[in-house]
Amino acid sequence: MNNDIEHLLATAADDTDRPLHTDVDGLLVRARRSVRRTRIATAATAVLTTAAIIGGIATWSATRPMSQGPAGTPMGQTITVDVKTGRIVDNETGRTVVPAPPVSPLSDAEVLTRCGRYDQAFARRAQAEHRTSDAAGPINDRWTVLVKSGDQSVLNTLLLSPDRSIVSTCTMTSPTRPDSISRTSPANFAARNQYRNPLTPQDGFRVPVPGVARVLLDIAGESSPREALVGADGYATLGHPGKHSNLIILNRIRGFDTNGKKVYDQTPKPFTAPARTVDPSVTVKTATPITPVVVLTKDPETGKPLAPPPPVSPLTDDQITTRCRGVDDIYFKDLGQGGVNTDDGVIKAAGPVTKDWQVALKTGTGNKLTAVLVSPDKRVYAWCHMLTATAKGPYDYSRAAVQADGKFADKGVFGMVPEGVAQLVVDLPTGPTRALISNGYYIWGLTGGNSGIKTVLIRGYDAQGKQVYAQKKSIDADFD
After folding, report:
1. What average pLDDT does this structure show over 369-388?
2. Is 226:88 a contact under the CB 8 Å cutoff?
3. CA distance linking residue 271 with residue 8, whole number of Å
4. CA triplet 308, 450, 445: central angle to 5 degrees?
5. pLDDT tens track for 335-353
6. Positions of the region Disordered (predicted)?
7. Are 370 and 384 in contact, with CB atoms under 8 Å apart?
8. What's the CA gap between 149 and 152, in Å, rounded?
């Protein structure tokens, strides 16, 4: 599992199972979030085999009825193929191109079986069988293998759903050892390479021109271009990185047809975030706490029992600020990676998390933790979601500033209690659940990660149990 710097805009462009929003504030928050981890296995140690070279052409498996292998040796002046070694020379720079990852020898049927088995296990683990935001259904033999790389054991593949609404990236380190999986729309998938942002090699991308047969990538920090493995409809991958699972930044993407003629040339553009500022005259205003006289145990509308609120974390406030500071340190250190603007007033206004920050809300059990921390000046909050005791494990993290109305933006992971509300009921797909309320904030579970997004109704009740508030919200309903 790679625990390097944040995906930044990769997360914004491909926030797994989450629609791509175009509003600036939402994009910025997502751009500055740490990686939403979908990994459920440890770092891969398998190393891919080298593609066989026969007569100057990379060979590929005949068991590929749907996914496509490398095209024949291109002829032309843009790139040159050494017929003796099969190596490609980039004529623009004179450098030898790093070969594409090998095509997987697995049949498409075997690929779909392995990833389908993993897809179901992942859905159960995330408790999202009925909460996924797409209608594509689980991976099965009706899905299309767009491109596949690896050997008999290691696998990295891109899959397309039968209704063409979802592209899934599936990576496995062995037939029974999954590494990562994601589901996103083709539009969001295509947005990955629009900006100069960090990606994992196995994420994959698409060159949106017909007839592309070879793709060369200029990667930041690497002296020679790399060739990607190209499959159907321009979908491509750099394969499973094995133990060298570091994030990469694409400086340039070039596509060539079967004759070696360049048909695509893109330079991902830097992302410069619009300036965010904090109004020094506004501090956050929370609702006056109300103690319920009538405590709801059943849904007032249906009479069905309410699921209990998520538990208050047993960790002390000092323990929480210490743990979240581990993520916060990375956030500050790597804020400038991938061309993201480092002059962010929201970050600089509050500075790093310290023990002086208020732990306004905390939930979780064991090492699992979600907390809302408020800066001493009450103008900035930090959202801290951790599934292990340190930042070396999965986490989700973001910051935002108080708005002009004295409220923190509600991004669907926690909320601020409305005035006059003593208790809240959240209509989750699993049933109505009482929300945890603390210091004027509420939460409905250990939210974070990549479980499905669902629009749900949040109902508020006064001290006597009378409904005084109702609003639909899109939330990340993850009790992982």
Report:
1. 92
2. no
3. 10
4. 15
5. 554 434 455 666 667 888 9
6. 298-319
7. yes
8. 10
